[in-house]
Amino acid sequence: MPACTMALVEFAYLDWCWVAIFILVMITCGVIFYRLGKRSESEFFLAGRDLPWWLPATSIYATHTATDTPMWITGVIYKYGMRGVWFPFFCAWCAVSSFVSARIFRRSLAMSQAEWQNLRYSGLGSELLRGWLAGWQTFMNMFVLAWVSAAMGKVGTYLFAWPHWVGLVAFTAICAIYVLSAGYWGVIMADFQQGLIAFLVITIVCCWGIYEAGGPTAIVQKLQALGEGWRLNPFHFDKEFPFAWFITLFIMATVGGIGMGNFIDWYPEAQRIQSARTVRDASYSIYAGGLATLFRNGFWVVAILAFYVMFPNITSQTEYEMGWYRLAFEYMPMGMIGVFFAAILAIHLSTISTHLNLGALYATRDLYHHYVNPNASQRRLVQVGRINTILLLIGCFVLGLTMKQITEWLIFALWLQAAGIWIPSILQVVWWRFNSWAYLSAWVANLVMSWLVVWVLPALGLIPKLPEYQQFWLLAVLVAVVYLPITFLTKPDDMDHLVRYYVMARPWGFWGPVRREAIGRGLIEPNADRSQ
Amino acid sequence: MSLFRKQWTPREADEWTVHDFVASVLAMASYVLVAVGVAGALLLRLWGFVALGAGIICIILMYLVIDPKLKAMSEAFAKRQRQYLDDIDKTTRWER
């Protein structure tokens, strides 16, 4: 978004009223749930593992909707037409995850993915993994906070000609009030109202955009008249969007649901899975959250096609990415713009609150509680949780105000996490023999190889600049060359530890030796075997 | 084994069965159909309504296949959860 000195929109008194009411309601949420949040570490970070499925589900939906999501989806739909719906389809990992990894993770009772490493693996490797993941996640959450806050700073500049820091600091600081007060209770309750508001307003704006373009039939007719009828086909493949891209996205979404940690979204979703009351609630929450996200995407697709027929000749990506925002700010009636801005705030604050609490969870549970003070009282742990929330907040402001080209860095950081460790993240769930050293080596190899494949080797002219889906498969193969030999050259994890994990989490896959050992020890009844 | 089985013992529900596989396939199918179906239906395309309808049928079938099993498993696990939570603190303790 270009910085401008003139405000794009003029708010009426009614618009500011909507915004003020919305902010007031959210902060009240924090005050109301303050007493629940302070009871223990489990309450502050998991709401006592007692939430019905629809609360984490709305939170999952809200988390899958950030300030930049409309820009990104507008970009791919404007460029690729309806087939662009497959780009954000990676969130469909929630489908398989609902009945595989979510169930296993909920049964493991790990408070975080880092703690799960400790339950799944044993020995020094397990501790190294927990420490690494905790540190990485604390930093990544701060990084995401900085990135999303900076995006809000740009929105403030774009809409109201505010200085960049105002939008960056003000709304994130407001959000911190209820996260500090009530921890995850505040996050989940605010997410519930934010999710509903965002869903409702996104639907209204999309319908408004479709109406402004002349309605559904007119959109179809105009696309055909422009010779762009292919934009209505979600399965239109060509050189620009090859079938290989589609298959890569589809496989990632389908098989990825078996693993844990394959996607950056897994980490907040793992917190929601663990906060659900039962295994059943955990499964339904993640399924419903993903479904609501895809349902919303359907509305966005048609609204962006409407924008396309109204403005078909925009070539600048920066300009057409703002298409959905333009539909709202240029066509919504006075008085409704405030509601729309409140929805943008809802989207923004749900992301901020999630990452503030999640980063503090890793810093508190996995670093402070596990390594620094294992005997800390619950009161002390909640205090440390709040201190870590403040530290993340300060870190996010410093990063957000100093980083310039953050989008490129963030995409690279996400890619780092996704490509090379994608298969190992599945193997650690389904294969008993895959050990901590293998997973650790996959992380290290991925860090090195992704730099080489994405930047260094193309810059040196040794390999061409590859499309992202080819980078993905190349990294998957290169990293496997490292972790597979290490798996077989190092000892399996301790059998006592594996049996304990198996009996509790009941993982799916190749766990035969561990299962037989558990049966031999009388921990699983042998006749249960017959039902398989 | 019936796909729409209503009675599960906790021990049976703990095991991985074809019901989990079918539920996962139906879940993914419902996602694909809803993703394209909503957009198609909003554009008043016939295939959009068909896809959306098929997506809703997949959701209902998924629920019928997996819910009894999830209920049985959840109730049994909830009874053991307190004991497991106590064990976790011992298992993962850094000062051992």
Provide structural commentary.
Chain A is 73% helix and 0% strand. With 532 residues, chain A is an all-alpha fold. Chain A has one domain: Sodium/glucose cotransporter (Up-down Bundle). The N and C termini of chain A lie far apart (56 Å). With 96 residues, chain B is mostly helical. Chain B has one domain. Chain B is elongated, with a radius of gyration of 19 Å.
Fold blueprint:
The complex is a heterodimer of chains A (532) and B (96).
Chain A: H1 13-32, H2 34-37, H3 41-46, H4 54-63, H5 69-80, H6 93-99, H7 101-108, H8 113-120, H9 123-160, H10 164-182, H11 184-212, H12 216-225, H13 243-256, H14 266-275, H15 279-310, H16 317-320, H17 323-331, H18 336-372, H19 378-402, H20 406-418, H21 422-430, H22 436-459, H23 468-489, H24 495-505, H25 512-520
Chain B: H1 10-14, H2 18-42, H3 46-91
Helix pairs in contact in B: 2-3
Helix content of chain A: over 70%
The overall number of domains of chain B is 1
CATH superfamily of chain A: Sodium/glucose cotransporter
Mean pLDDT of chain A: 89
| Residues in helices of chain B, as a percent range | over 70%
Gross geometry of chain A: globular
Unreliably modeled segments of chain A = 528-532
Gyration radius of chain B, to the nearest Å? Answer: 19 Å
**Number of separate helices of chain A:** 25
- How far apart lie the N and C ends of chain A? 56 Å
Task: Please state the structural category of chain A.
Answer: mainly alpha
Could you tell me the mean pLDDT of chain B? 91
Bin the strand percentage of chain B. Answer: under 5%
Number of domains of chain A: 1
